[in-house]
Each structure stands twice: as structure tokens, then as C-alpha cells.
Specification:
By secondary structure, this protein is α/β, with parallel strands linked by helices. 33% of the residues lie in helices and 25% in strands. It is globular, with a radius of gyration of 15 Å. This is Ribose ABC transporter permease.
Length: 182
Amino acid sequence: MKNKGALLKELFTNLSTTGAVTFSSKPLVNKMLSYANFRGAKLIVELGGGDGSITQGIVDRMDSDAVLLVFEINKSFCENMEKIFPQKNIKIICDSAENMDKYLGGKKADLILSSLPLTLIPKPSREEIYRKCKENIVENGKLIQICYSYLLKFQFGKYFEEIKSHLMFKNFPPTFILVCEQ
């Protein structure tokens, strides 16, 4: 398992894909996850696992019979998370969120929780991620996205009918939490 220093170095080295200058703070993780109802959620998807800080928050809250699929494109982050989360119901997937449907086995997610750096992802890929999220979430399911740009709310608006935004100041930089519902 890598220490935080090694993970931070990886974060800075790959800024164009990680999209962050630091990992999500505990207050941000708690606030983000407070908008999700984990009770009864059987299939949960996380987009952008990073250092596993949001993943840990999900694991702490999800039902014991739930399955969590964590998508992360950074191989070092994936290897680290596989060591932290060896549970059989947690799958660390080293692939793009664009391909989430290939791993769902025809099922739809109850919750999708994302910290993807969407503003850094090329528009065609970003649009594909939005589309796949909409197509692969249950009716009344929630997609919860943390982001640094309020403008993303309008991009999600093409795919989700109801979007609520919350500004979180207890994070650097201040962060928006978008809660999207079908």
C-alpha cells in the first residue's frame, strides 16, 4: 500500500487526468455522501476512485450485501485501492467511466458517485459519460458529482431532469456538489 506522499506525487504528476491538487477532504466526503440514500442500494458505482477517500466513505455506509464498482484510470491508484479494499463485493476497475455499462452485467446502479475531473475530460468523452450515467441508473436513482465549476450543472441538465447544487466551503478549493435525479 502506498503512503499519502507517494499518492500525492502521483496526483501532481498526472494532474491532467486526476484534475485535483489534493484529495477530497473528510468534510467534503461526508457532505457529498449525506445526499445519498445507501439503505437498500444494491449496486453502487463510483467514478474516479483516486486515493479511496470517497470509496472508504461509501464502504462505511453501504449495506453488507451491496456491490460497489469503482472506476479509476490511474493504474497506481487502482493498485493501491485493491490493497485497501480486498472485499469481494468491491471491484476496482482500471478503465474509463465511458465503459461502465460493460461491467454492470445488464443491471442499473442505484447510486453513482463521481469525483471525475469533468472539465479536463474532452467533450465527446464527457458527453458519453453523462449519457452512460443516465442510461445505467435506476429510476429515482441519484448521480452525485463533486466539481469545481458551477457550469457543469448545465451540462448535466441535458441528461437529468432535476439537479440541485450545493456549495461546500470546507474544502480547498471550494467545491460544488451536484445531486442529479431522473
